[in-house]
Amino acid sequence: MNSIALRTMNDIRFFLLAFWLGAATLFSFVVAPSLFSVLRQFQLANANEIAGTIVTRILSIVNVSGFFLSLVLIGLTLIIAGNVGRSYLVQLALFLAMAIATSVGHWLIAARMRAIRAALELPIDQIAATDPRRIMFANLHRYSVTALGIAMLAAIVSIVLIRARSTW
Questions:
Q1: Are 110 and 56 in contact (CB under 8 A)?
Q2: Cα dist from 166 to 2, 10, 11, 93, 108, whole Å
Q3: Is 120 helix (H, G, I), strand (E, B) or coil?
């Protein structure tokens, strides 16, 4: 692969990652907290239930897009790595970590959270904080945040590596 094609592939990978990371960051630090904050201001009995439903839908998009993006990035990196050498193994590992984290976040953790919410006879806001289902939900929420955080960190490190390689 010539240097122009290599730079183009790196630019494509960079922009795809930056776009996804921007969406994940906006969701994590602006959209999700704002939804809960604004809805709680209305003092609705089920404000967390409403916000959680919206956040779940958006998180689904972030996780699924992150999963498929990571598969595309793995493919593009394999194309590049065949011509450049073994230096792309770290990037492949990061994209694999991103794929695993987003898929676990969506198809395992979020699926269990949805199942818990569906099985509740009341909105989660009205379930006692000591109820085992609510405790399990809170634990799954922490795992979900951790999974997305791992995917985002993998994306950040990948972006740094891609930019560093393009300046060599």
A1: yes
A2: 13, 7, 8, 19, 36
A3: coil
In angstroms, the CA 79 to CA 96 distance is: 16
What would you measure as the largest C-alpha separation in the chain, in angstroms? 62
* Token pair recorded at residue 124: 């989660």
Report which of 97, 87, 92, 104 is spatially closest to residue 152, judged by C-alpha positions.
97
Does an H or E element contain 105, and which? none
pLDDT digits (tens, 9 = 90+) for 60-95: 999 999 999 999 999 999 988 776 666 688 999 999
Phi, psi at 130, each rounded to 5°: -90, -5
Task: Tell me the whole-structure pTM to 2 decimals.
Answer: 0.93
Dist. CA 3–CA 11, nearest whole Å:
12
Kindly give, in sequence order, each residue whose CB lies less than 8 Å from that of residue 24, ignoring residues fewer than 6 positions away. Answer: 62, 66, 148, 151, 152, 155
Distance CA 34, CA 97 (A): 28
Q: Where are the domains of the chain?
A: 3-166
At which residue do the structure tokens 């930056």 appear?
18
